[in-house]
Structures are given as structure tokens and as C-alpha cells.
Input
Amino acid sequence: MISKNDIQKAFSAALPIMLGYIAIGIPCGILCASIGLNAFQVFLLSMLFYSGAGQFMIPNMYLAGSPLLSIIASVSLVNTRQMLYSASFAPQCKGVRKRLAFLFAATVTDESYGVNTTCFESGNWTVKRATLVNLFSQSSWALSNVVGVLVGNAIGVPLAIASFAMTSIFICLLCMQKITPANAVAVVLSMAGVFLAKALRLGGAAILLGALLGVAGALVFSRFFTPKKESASTNRSSDEA
Amino acid sequence: MSWTEFFIVLLTCGLTMLACRVLPLFLLKGKELPERVEQALNFIPPAAFAALVANDLLSPDMFAAGVWEGCIPLLASAVVVLVAFKTKSLLWSAVVGVAVYALLAFIPIG
Output
């Protein structure tokens, strides 16, 4: 089943995420406590909903007096980007047992998606290990949130600084992508798309819209600028063209 | 927030989240994908990471609190890019990023 080697490999891959989740999970728990949620409720939310952005949005919007329906709609909209991650893991889950594939898919986050994608690309990675990465990350997130509820506002680290840990992880993941003309098109258009979406007050869907624009632009680019003989090659080499 | 309100939020947000996380994978899993679709899937990582970074760093009102305040995350990000290329380590990137950000935030300018 799960070997000691699997656990070790998964743990060291998950460690940066786990530390990052401590840094933002504690403030998130504090915020949730401020709208009257108790440790058990915050634990349930972290295990069953498990969304960093969403768990910050819920108390923030509740404090601002938003009606439940608009909280639910906004949070769900923000989480639609998960569909992209889910789709991109489909090839790796080919032939994987249904239950394992379900557990894996159900516990993907921005950060664990990034780490597992990089691990799959470098080879020697399995869905089993990827699921362990997800579960380690989820445990860290749930525990940190509960700690946040219990300690309350005793820790005075500003959220902007703590959350920069996640931004740094995304920057590093971006830097580890292959540098190809088509990838560059995807990156530039995604960033422009996010900015544009925010300017048009579509901030909730900015990540999804930006990423979709990036993928679409890169597809168009590679259709017109890829030499014909390359077009029949496998995915690995086609985005290097 | 009452228990009832909590359960409504947990149930609806939890279910839409689960659907977004699980459905696309199970719909595409085990199918021979057309080359175009496969190519699109391969563009998701760079596009998604770029979007996540941009979402954290860029917004039309990023300089609203002042030019220096707006520059802090950008300067810290530039340092993270250097660290990322040099070390290829998420952990080092996060540690250095937070340290530089904190350092810049405490420099009294403006």
C-alpha cells in the first residue's frame, strides 16, 4: 500500500505548503472566530470546504453585512478555477482506482495543485503520493485554523505579510515553468486578463478569466506559429516549439 | 453567524467546491483526449500560476495607499524571482519573500 518512501517524499514536497498554511491558517481561524464560529465549526469548514480564499471571504463578507446568498454566490464563483486544476490532472488519473482519484481530486488546492504538477512533470510521482501531499496540506490547514480560533487575536502578525508566503510560492512555481514562446504568451495574457477583470469589477472571477484567456491565447499562438511537422508530436514537445 | 446559517454556507459552498474539484477530472479521465484538448491542458499550469501571481500583486488601485506601499510587494516579488531561479525551492522562496516583505514594510518612507 503506502510505503515509508511515499510518505517521506510526499511530506518533503508538502512541507512548504504546510508552513504556508500555518502562516495564513491561524489568521483565518482568528477571523472566523470573530463572526462567532467555534473551533468545531471551523474544523468542519476546513475539512469539508477546504478553501483558503473562500474561508477568508465568508467572514469578511458576513462582517460587511452581505446576505447569505451573495456570500455563497461570490465564494462559489471564486472557486470555479478549481475546474481547471481538476481537468489538468485527468491524464495522470487514467487507470487510477475511483476512490483514490476521488479523494485526490476532492483535496486539490491552488498550492497543492502547483506542487503536484511540478512533481508529476519531473517524473517519479504517483497519484498516491500526490494525494498524501494534499492530505498533509489539509491537516496543516485544519489544525492552523483551529489554533487560530483557540488563541484568538494574541498573535499580531499583519495578514498582508503572512499571506505573502503564498504569493512567493506561486511566484516560485511560475519561475519553474518551461520557458517557451507559447508559455510566455500564456503568462502575459493571464496577467493582463486578471488586471482587466479587476478593472471591470469582475474580481471574483479574475483568476479563472485570466487563466482562460492565457490558455486560449497560447493555443491560438501555437496554432499559427508552430511548424507543421511538430503538430503531430506529443504534448511534451509541442509546447516547446 | 448562527448554526443554521453556518450549515447553509457549509453545505452549499462545500458542494459547489466538490463539484468543481471532482467533475472535470472524472469527465475527462480515461478518455483518449483530442490533441488540442491535451495541448490546452498543458497550458493550464503557466496560465494558472501567472493568474494567481497577478491576482495577488496587480489591481487598478494597487497604488491607492501610496507609491511606496504599492511598490513593496513588487520589490519583494523581484527578490523572490531571483531566489526561485537560484534555488528552485518553494520553501526558500516563501521564507525570503516574507522576510523581505516584512523588512520593506517596516522601512518608514513617505
Remarks:
- The CA atoms of residues 10 and 133 of chain A lie 5 Å apart.
- Chain A touches chain B through 102 residues (CB under 8 Å).
- Confidence is low (pLDDT under 50) at residues 229-241 of chain A.
- The longest helix of chain A spans residues 4-33.
